[in-house]
Task: inverse folding
């Protein structure tokens, strides 16, 4: 069973969704429990995986399939295309230190989102079926090692998300869902083009046909090795083909990059996020902010950077710049919002900027910080959206100015809010701090270690800390402190303390945020080996390619 | 000497007959159905339906031995036709389309003539795909066209007549252009058999602008059939008005006929420089135009019509590239296109029987008619090219063939085309998503409780089509293996 | 010498047919234009056949075109008659209910 | 690096004394909403244990070289971040100060907060604060210090905003946290820069590297694990200034001192503990810890910041009427003094003043709190409404609260720098050091000791003003008059006061009331090398006696002036007060409004911040979104155009062109009407375009 | 030489009649002028050795198509005693396009190799043979086309009523 653990984690919700679809809409309770069981199974599976993972020795050696665990490989599609060669698509799954934390985080958030979904009463069957499909495709993204497989999961995710926002969302849900769909589809299309170019240019070194024809592969690990590029293909590192002065490899990198940062999202492709978040129902916001955004960052680290290391090094200034812009710009925008959910959405933009900055820095600290930030932001933003949801559930209003002095009325809720606000603004001892700290350490170090990101960017980025403190504390002051004053008198009775179900969602998050903040090694130990491999891969390959280009070009 | 030659030729003609088994079956079907119709004086549509279905399957079954026996294919009837695997594969698609069209059932209360004219349309398409001379191309095209004109009028409403005359006049004009082009080509090469080397060499030596001019005129006739820019203008009117099964078959049979002709012609025409550029350009314009125009349609069928213009562009791209990979991707996509398009039309048919024509009528149906709505979603997503459906795989191959060709070409034109095509996927999403959008996201305005749900048979058909779309996503290699057996280049004679 | 006459003539007939198709509002006049276009092609076919006399492709093509033109005309007239019954006109400009919304 | 073998007993004791406040915090959190009383006493007893332990360690470990405790915390890549603590003289001293003051405040609070409904929350926060403050003290790693640094800031945030229902309290806590964050940015940048250069954040490792520093002309060379690390002095100046940023924020130095006066919104014991004795002193402690990294230019800046703050704070204190505000500004001023001490190289002097200041300033606050508490009680009993902190409404309180008066008087004398009290010793030491520093280099540096003297004078002046206004003259409290009703507080309040007052006597620090320095300075002194030590500085010892006399004179003048100015006939005093409030002069306004710093920041920093906020929000809605959507919009436009082209092109065109010429109108109309022919015309048109292309080609 | 003159005469006939069709708005005139055109074309066919085609042209075009057209004209115009006129539209455009087409064809036609026309021997006989051998299948298909068109035309024309709704 261990050998198929990843498949189990992926496909359990699909099975759940099928069962749900076979049930009647009226059996709402049963549907809920079945769905919960499905995601709980997922969580159990990923927890087993996580604990097993702690026992594996830290992988040494290069970035190859050997450094992955729980690998499942099955031939999916093999197409003999005559003289052109063979096209091979594998059902290739595997996890390393980069994906395991994200995987586990996702499964937990999905469970919490499921608990939060308990209050959904409209079209229950459809909702839970879609939710389960969504959870499948999310997990698929994190464990797929075949680009094709990854892309399928990546793209398929849009569909359940579209409906979840579009049907169960708020007032402007239609606009928001379409905007979300279109933005991310643009990204997907760019990724698709890059993917096509890649598989045409990459051959599988392990399989060579008797007649000397090449086996084209979608295997991400093969793509990450420059030696596997077919000589003369456009994406061959020695290829000199260019378009408008930009080499095609850089162009392909940009495609991947833009595709992923739309998802991340980074300025200026972030405007779908506030709309989607504001309109989405609470659990969907939770999943969206908690998990979906991370796939962008994960994609950069897993796909864009290893495959096009030289372009990545080339553009790191811009990557870092975008990150800093996102941090500052997102922060200022969060400051300006009067809608609590929008505020949190913009704060997500700001916090995901750290991910970009960390990735751009290219140091171990930077990469680790980026991943750490993704994981921690996953938990924190989930909690923040739950907080917004708690209020919205009670009054159907999210406007900050309509509330005041909530601390008096809902002291426990206030305590939870304060906790997560502080976690998000980077209070030491809570997980948000470690991620940002690592990013800073990486970014400051970068200029002396590898010259990827100038120090002024890092200095500017620190300003994000002040901004986040400003908007969170200001919100606290406006909504929770002061005398109790609500827009409508009736709210006074509606605003009740957290229910047991809500506690159930918050407590694990509180626990994990604390745990990761105080004992970050639980997370860092998991990923250190993989991050090191990744970093070395990017820099060694990148430098080799740049050198060969320089010598070949002149 | 003459007599000897004559008997030899006659024998050859007779010998060729066994290689056109599918055509013969359909031809026989036409005549048999005509007779049965006369005997039953138009009162037994169901019988005719069953009979046509029977003939469709017989013809389909007849393809199999030919496929196995004739790996190379051979010229028939003194080089008028060919029965190579290109022809056979496309015939199979055409016959599948016929069978699927028949599955729409008798619900439309069409006149019985419908069935054999449907068969003759099929025959026209089959003729086109196996044509090797411009004459047989023209004939097949006209057979398909004339059957098409008649079928458009079926339904016999005011708008049907209008659409019929429009279609006819436009078609006649298009074939007039084509004829003139053919005559010029004939004058240039002295031959109509465009697959022969003589034709190609003559064309190569001919004055280039003149040859290109003639080619453009010929292309116009073919573009008319595949509804490609600039001969696409009839499409929305006809798709909107013709009975739904007719519109459905229009979107496949003449299209594939024209496309295979184009494929064969391209083999010869590409000796004329800038021919493929022209084709790529037209295809790209088609994609853009079709998508843009589809954006602000309110009528579902009009939207599908414009979308089929764009899809035609996608289908012409690999033909223009004209290498092994591209042709493989072309066959794959057209095969998938058959299923997804039919699924869409099949569902639209049900909606129209419920008097639901525009997107507005679709509002809020997703709630009560979940299966219908999900099937629609599958069809639309497959048309967009969204995983996990075969439409995605098809688009992937076409894009791949573009990239692959770009790799060997010098300029960056193909990259631009690739980006344009890929970008248009996003545009296409806008309108394809409209149906699910209206069904799921909008709230119904009118009371739709009176609307009938799909019958068991309809559900089965829809399930079958959906299954196809999913299956060929999961195992495209099974189809590709078959397609790989089709030799390339097209003409190996 | 003969060369240019046939070609010029067919070009002229072709263009005239096109002009008729474009300018006439009466559907039958448009049909006449289409016939002229066909005839133009036919002239070419027959003339070119004279240049390549080994096979009779051109002539046979002409026969086919003529036949098909007849068939098409018959069909067209059937539709026109029906159209006239419903629209009470043969003016193409007035027969246009199919407009995009 | 020679390292003391880890003494297991000492470290267990430290663990216990450190974790007990945390325990108090956790239990407080759990019991937070229960309305039971026991928690305060429980916390206090926990803290008593802590305090005992800290004294025990102080005694046992006295004079022992520093020792370390370190475990691996987390590893990123190949770099290990350890959880490392250090125990040295300076640590021991601070441990004692923090735990003792905290204990006293706890005891005091038992009484002071008796009736507050949120007192469980209060004690929990105090526990958190004490824990984190001890964390700062104990940590050997810059990262750990930063963590606890932020944590004390957070507990301070909670405590300032303890009465969150009061808008002003909520606002003040917000402001405090934010201003501190600004300072912390500097700290963080400094940490990152250090890490970027040295790949370590351990203070002891850094000290080790500085010890072994090689001075090669323009660069410093360090050796770490066999690797050679080079860095320029300029980099060190930058790092030092960044680190100074953290201290400037936390210790309320110029220009970030604006938060401290507002922080007085918190309960008074909190002000005593956090905003007078310990947390605000953390900045000084921190600079003392990383003193070896500071370069002379950086120290120069430190000295000036300290001097400026000392004078600014003192000036602002002169004209305040809120008793806590006076003390707050006085704290700012005294902190400035300490920073000044550090700047002039007087690390030990600064720490000495920190210790003495902790005692007398905590005492002053607690005494003030005692008065406020009593007045509150009085107001509560008589149902009167007045501001219990306004000195204009006090007067003659010595008659009602003799203990408090006595304590207050002693402490005021201590802070004023009158001999026989601790304040004289430490201040004198600083001024002496400043003078020798200035005389060594001369020039502009003379300003620093002058400002120090001036601020010492002002301190004496405003303290005597305070004492005069509050304790002497006639009482102006509404409903009170000279009748009874206002009574001394209970023992839980007075005993901590007396302890602190006793602690401010000279005898604990130096047997000689006019002596120079203290044994404490030897305790905290270290023989490790510093970067500034690399630059051979000439020190010019100025005789201590001269300085001492000058400083005593200055203090006495200040006290005397205050006494003369504010000990007049009561009527006159009141009249003068009224005159002052109605016609304020420029200087008194400047002083009252704390140099208009708040207004300045509102108009500049806050204003531009708000503008930026608005601008980016505007940009997001009106620029970025639309621009990114432009593709989409273009798409839609194209579709509209195509659609329009299909149906209407022509109508529009027609109408336009018909008017121009019949000819063009004719062409245009040609596309109109009869759909088939329109279609044919269009197809032909495009075909002809292609033909044209063929012809041109 | 004489055939050359006949060429010109026939060509002139065709040109003039076509011009007439272009100019007249009267449908009946147009139809009758079309007869002349067909005749001229048939004559040219004869000159180009395509006797059988010429005959077919006469029989089918004049005997079939034209009659159909005239019937059509009669059946769709109920006004007696008035000339049956067609309105014109897009005249400028039509002329523009057709002139453009004409010039481009003429211009491009220079690209033909000027081969002299050769006498096609035994044209009718060979054509007959070819129809049953080379073009056997196509001939059959023409039959199917005719059949289908016929059935279609009949179905459409026979249909009663204005549709179902």
Result:
């Amino acid at each position: 069973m261990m050998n198929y653990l990843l498949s189990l984690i992926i496909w359990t919700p699909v099975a759940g969704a099928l069962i749900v679809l076979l049930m009647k809409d009226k059996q709402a309770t049963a549907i809920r429990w079945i769905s919960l069981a499905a995601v709980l199974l997922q969580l159990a599976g990923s927890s087993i995986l996580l604990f097993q993972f702690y026992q594996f020795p830290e992988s040494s050696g290069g970035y190859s399939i050997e450094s992955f665990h729980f690998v499942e490989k099955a031939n999916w599609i093999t197409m003999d295309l005559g003289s052109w060669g063979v096209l091979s698509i594998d059902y290739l799954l595997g996890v390393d230190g980069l994906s395991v934390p994200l995987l586990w985080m996702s499964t937990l958030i999905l469970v919490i989102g499921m608990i939060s979904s308990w209050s959904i009463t409209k079209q229950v069957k459809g909702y839970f079926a879609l939710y389960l499909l969504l959870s499948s495709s999310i997990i698929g993204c994190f464990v797929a090692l075949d680009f094709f497989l990854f892309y399928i999961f990546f793209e398929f995710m849009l569909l359940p998300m579209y409906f979840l926002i579009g049907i169960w969302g708020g007032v402007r849900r239609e606009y928001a869902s379409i905007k979300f769909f279109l933005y991310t589809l643009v990204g997907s299309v760019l990724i698709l083009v890059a993917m096509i170019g890649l598989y045409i240019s990459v051959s599988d070194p392990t399989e060579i046909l008797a007649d000397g024809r090449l086996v084209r592969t979608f295997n991400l690990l093969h793509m990450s090795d420059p030696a596997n590029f077919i000589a003369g293909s456009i994406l061959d590192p020695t290829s000199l083909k260019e378009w408008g002065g930009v080499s095609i490899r850089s162009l392909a990198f940009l495609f991947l990059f833009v595709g992923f940062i739309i998802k991340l999202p980074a300025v200026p492709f972030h405007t779908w996020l506030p709309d989607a978040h504001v309109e989405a129902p609470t659990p969907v916001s939770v999943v969206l902010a908690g998990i979906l955004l991370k796939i962008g960052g994960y994609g950069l680290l897993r796909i864009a950077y290893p495959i096009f290391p030289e372009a990545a090094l080339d553009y790191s200034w811009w990557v870092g710049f975008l990150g800093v812009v996102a941090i500052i710009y997102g922060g200022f925008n969060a400051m300006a919002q009067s809608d609590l959910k929008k505020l949190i959405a913009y704060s997500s933009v700001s916090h995901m900027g750290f991910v970009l900055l960390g990735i751009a820095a290219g140091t171990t600290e930077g990469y680790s910080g980026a991943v750490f930030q993704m994981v921690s932001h996953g938990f924190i933003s989930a909690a923040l959206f739950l907080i917004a949801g708690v209020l919205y559930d009670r009054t159907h209003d999210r406007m900050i100015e309509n509330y005041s002095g909530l601390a008096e009325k809902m002291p426990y809720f206030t305590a939870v809010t304060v906790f997560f606000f502080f976690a998000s603004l980077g209070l030491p001892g809570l997980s948000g701090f470690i991620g940002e700290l690592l990013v800073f350490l990486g970014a400051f170090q970068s200029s002396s270690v590898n010259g990827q990101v100038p120090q002024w960017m890092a200095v500017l980025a620190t300003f994000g800390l002040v901004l986040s403190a400003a908007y969170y504390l200001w919100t606290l002051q406006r909504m929770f402190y002061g005398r109790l004053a609500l827009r409508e008198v009736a709210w006074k009775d509606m605003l009740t303390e957290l229910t047991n179900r809500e506690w159930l969602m918050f407590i694990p998050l509180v626990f994990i945020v604390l745990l990761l903040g105080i004992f970050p090694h639980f997370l860092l130990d998991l990923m250190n080996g993989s991050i090191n491999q990744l970093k070395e891969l990017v820099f060694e390959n990148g430098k080799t390619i740049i050198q060969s280009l320089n010598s070949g070009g002149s | 000497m003459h007599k000897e030659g004559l008997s030899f030729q006659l024998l050859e003609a007779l010998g060729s007959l066994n290689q056109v088994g599918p055509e013969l079956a359909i031809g026989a079907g036409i005549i048999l159905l005509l007779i049965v119709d006369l005997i039953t004086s138009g009162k037994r549509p169901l019988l005719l339906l069953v009979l046509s279905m029977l003939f469709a399957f017989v013809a389909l079954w007849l393809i199999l031995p030919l496929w196995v026996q004739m790996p190379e294919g051979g010229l028939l009837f003194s080089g008028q036709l060919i029965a190579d695997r290109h022809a056979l594969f496309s015939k199979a698609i055409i016959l599948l389309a016929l069978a699927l069209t028949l599955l729409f059932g008798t619900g439309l209360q069409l006149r019985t003539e419908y069935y054999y004219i449907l068969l003759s349309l099929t025959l026209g398409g089959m003729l086109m795909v196996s044509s090797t001379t411009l004459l047989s191309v023209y004939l097949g095209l006209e057979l398909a066209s004339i059957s098409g004109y008649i079928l458009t009028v079926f339904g016999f409403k005011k708008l049907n007549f209008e659409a019929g005359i429009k279609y006819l006049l436009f078609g006649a004009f298009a074939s007039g252009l084509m004829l003139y082009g053919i005559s010029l080509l004939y004058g240039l090469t002295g031959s109509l058999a465009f697959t022969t080397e003589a034709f190609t060499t003559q064309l190569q030596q001919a004055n280039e602008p003149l040859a290109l001019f003639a080619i453009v005129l010929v292309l116009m006739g073919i573009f008319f059939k595949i509804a490609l820019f600039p001969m696409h203008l009839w499409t929305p009117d006809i798709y909107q008005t013709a009975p739904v099964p007719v519109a459905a078959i229009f979107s496949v049979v003449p299209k594939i006929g024209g496309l295979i002709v184009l494929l064969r012609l391209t083999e010869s025409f590409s000796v004329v420089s800038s021919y493929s550029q022209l084709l790529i350009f037209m295809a790209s314009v088609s994609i853009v135009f079709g998508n843009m125009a589809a954006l602000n349609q309110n009528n579902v069928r009009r939207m599908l019509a414009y979308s089929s213009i764009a899809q035609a562009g996608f289908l012409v791209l690999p033909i223009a590239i004209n290498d092994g990979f591209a042709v493989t991707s072309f066959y794959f996509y057209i095969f998938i296109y058959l299923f997804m398009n039919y699924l869409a039309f099949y569902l639209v048919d049900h909606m129209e029987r419920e008097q639901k024509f525009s997107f507005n009528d679709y509002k809020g149906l997703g709630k009560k008619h979940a299966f219908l709505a999900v099937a629609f979603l599958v069809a639309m997503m497959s048309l967009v090219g969204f995983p996990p459906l075969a439409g995605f795989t098809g688009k992937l191959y076409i894009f791949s063939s573009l990239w692959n060709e770009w790799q060997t070409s010098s300029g960056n034109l193909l990259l631009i085309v690739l980006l344009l095509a890929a970008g248009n996927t996003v545009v296409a999403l806008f309108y394809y998503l409209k149906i699910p959008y209206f069904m799921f996201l909008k709230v119904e305005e009118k009371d739709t409780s009176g609307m009938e749900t799909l019958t068991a048979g309809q559900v089965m058909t829809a399930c079958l089509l959906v299954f196809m779309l999913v299956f060929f996503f999961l195992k495209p290699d099974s189809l590709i293996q078959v397609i790989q057996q089709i030799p390339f280049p097209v003409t190996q004679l | 010498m003969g060369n240019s006459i046939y070609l010029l003539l067919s070009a002229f007939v072709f263009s005239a047919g096109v002009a008729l198709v474009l300018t006439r509002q009466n559907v039958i006049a448009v049909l006449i234009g289409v016939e002229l276009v066909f005839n133009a092609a036919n002239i070419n076919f027959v003339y070119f056949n004279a240049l390549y006399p080994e096979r009779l492709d051109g002539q046979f093509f002409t026969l086919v075109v003529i036949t098909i033109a007849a068939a098409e005309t018959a069909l067209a007239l059937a539709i026109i008659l029906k159209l006239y019954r419903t629209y009470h006109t043969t003016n193409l400009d007035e027969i246009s209910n199919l407009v995009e919304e | 690096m020679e390292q003391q073998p880890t003494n297991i007993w000492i470290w267990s004791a430290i663990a216990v004394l450190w974790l007990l406040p945390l325990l108090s915090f956790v239990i407080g959190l759990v019991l937070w909403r229960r309305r039971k009383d026991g928690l305060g006493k429980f916390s206090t007893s926990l803290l008593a244990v802590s305090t005992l332990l800290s004294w025990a360690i102080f005694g046992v470990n006295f004079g022992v070289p520093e020792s370390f405790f370190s475990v691996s915390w987390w590893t990123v890549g190949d770099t290990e971040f350890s959880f490392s603590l250090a125990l040295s003289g300076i640590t021991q001293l601070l441990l004692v100060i923090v735990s003792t003051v905290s204990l006293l405040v706890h005891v005091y609070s038992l009484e002071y907060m008796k009736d507050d409904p949120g007192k469980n929350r209060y004690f929990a926060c105090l526990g958190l604060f004490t824990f984190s403050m001890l964390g700062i003290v104990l940590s050997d790693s810059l990262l750990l210090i930063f963590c606890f640094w932020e944590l004390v800031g957070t507990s301070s945030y909670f405590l300032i905003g303890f009465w969150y229902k009061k808008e002003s309290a909520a606002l003040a806590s917000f402001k405090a946290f934010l201003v501190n964050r600004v300072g912390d940015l500097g700290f963080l940048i400094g940490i990152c820069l250090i890490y970027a250069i040295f790949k370590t954040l351990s203070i002891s490792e850094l000290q080790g590297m500085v010890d072994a520093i090689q001075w090669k002309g323009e660069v410093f060379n360090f050796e770490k694990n066999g690797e050679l690390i080079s860095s320029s002095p300029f980099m060190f100046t930058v790092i030092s200034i960044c680190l100074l940023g953290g201290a400037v924020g936390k210790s309320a130095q110029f220009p970030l001192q604006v938060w401290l006066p507002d922080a007085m919104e918190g309960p008074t014991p909190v002000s005593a503990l956090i905003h007078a004795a310990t947390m605000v002193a953390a900045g000084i402690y921190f600079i003392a810890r990383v003193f070896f990294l500071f370069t002379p230019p950086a120290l120069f800046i430190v000295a000036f910041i300290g001097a400026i703050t000392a004078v600014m704070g003192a000036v602002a204190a002169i004209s305040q009427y809120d008793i806590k505000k006076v003390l707050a500004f006085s704290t700012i001023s005294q902190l400035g003094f300490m920073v000044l001490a550090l700047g002039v190289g007087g690390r030990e002097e600064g720490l000495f003043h920190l210790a003495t200041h902790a005692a007398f300033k905590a005492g002053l606050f607690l005494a003030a709190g005692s008065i406020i508490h009593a007045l509150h009680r009085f107001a509560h009993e008589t149902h009167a409404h007045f501001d219990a902190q306004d000195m204009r409404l006090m007067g003659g309180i010595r008659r009602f609260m003799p203990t408090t008066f006595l304590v207050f008087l002693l402490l005021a004398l201590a802070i004023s720098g009158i001999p026989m009290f601790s304040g004289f010793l430490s201040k004198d030491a600083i001024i002496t050091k400043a003078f020798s520093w200035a005389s060594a280099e001369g020039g502009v540096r003379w300003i620093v000791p002058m400002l120090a003297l001036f601020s010492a004078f002002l301190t004496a002046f405003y303290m005597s003003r305070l004492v005069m206004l509050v304790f002497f003259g006639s009482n102006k409290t509404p409903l009170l008059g000279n009748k009874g009703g206002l009574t001394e507080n209970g023992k839980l309040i007075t005993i901590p006061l007396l302890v602190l007052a006793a602690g401010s006597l000279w005898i604990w620090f130096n047997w000689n009331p006019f002596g120079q320095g203290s044994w404490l300075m030897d305790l905290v002194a270290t023989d490790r090398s510093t970067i500034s030590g690399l630059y051979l500085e000439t020190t010019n010892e100025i005789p201590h006696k001269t300085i001492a006399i000058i400083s005593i004179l200055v203090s006495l003048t200040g006290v005397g002036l205050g006494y003369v100015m504010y000990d007049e006939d009561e009527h006159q005093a009141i009249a003068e007060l009224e005159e002052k409030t109605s016609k304020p002069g420029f200087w008194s306004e400047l002083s009252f409004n704390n140099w208009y710093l708040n207004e300045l920041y509102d108009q500049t920093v806050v204003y531009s911040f708000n503008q930026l906020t608005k601008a980016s929000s505007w940009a997001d809605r009106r620029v970025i979104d639309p621009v990114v959507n432009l593709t989409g919009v273009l798409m839609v436009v194209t579709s509209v155009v195509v659609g329009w082209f299909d149906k209407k092109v022509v109508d529009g065109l027609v109408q336009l062109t018909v008017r121009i010429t019949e000819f063009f109108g004719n062409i245009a109309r040609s596309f109109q009407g009869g759909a088939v022919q329109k279609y044919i015309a269009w197809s032909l048109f495009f075909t002809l375009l292609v033909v044209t292309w063929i012809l041109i080609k | 030489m004489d055939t050359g003159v006949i060429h010109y005469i026939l060509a002139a006939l065709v040109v003039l009649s076509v011009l007439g069709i272009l100019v007249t708005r009267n449908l009946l005139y147009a139809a009758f002028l079309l007869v002349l055109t067909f005749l001229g074309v048939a004559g040219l066919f004869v000159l180009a050795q395509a006797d059988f085609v010429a005959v077919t042209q006469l029989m089918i075009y004049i005997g079939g198509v034209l009659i159909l057209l005239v019937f059509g004209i009669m059946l769709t115009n109920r006004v007696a005693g008035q000339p049956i006129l067609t309105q014109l539209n897009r005249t400028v455009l039509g002329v523009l396009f057709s002139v453009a087409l004409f010039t481009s064809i003429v211009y491009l036609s220079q690209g033909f190799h000027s081969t002299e026309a050769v006498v096609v021997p035994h044209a009718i006989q060979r054509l007959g043979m070819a129809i049953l051998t080379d073009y056997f299948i196509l001939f059959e298909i023409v039959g199917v086309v005719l059949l289908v068109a016929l059935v279609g035309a009949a179905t459409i024309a026979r249909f009663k009523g204005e549709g179902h709704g």
The longest strand of chain A covers residues 69-80.
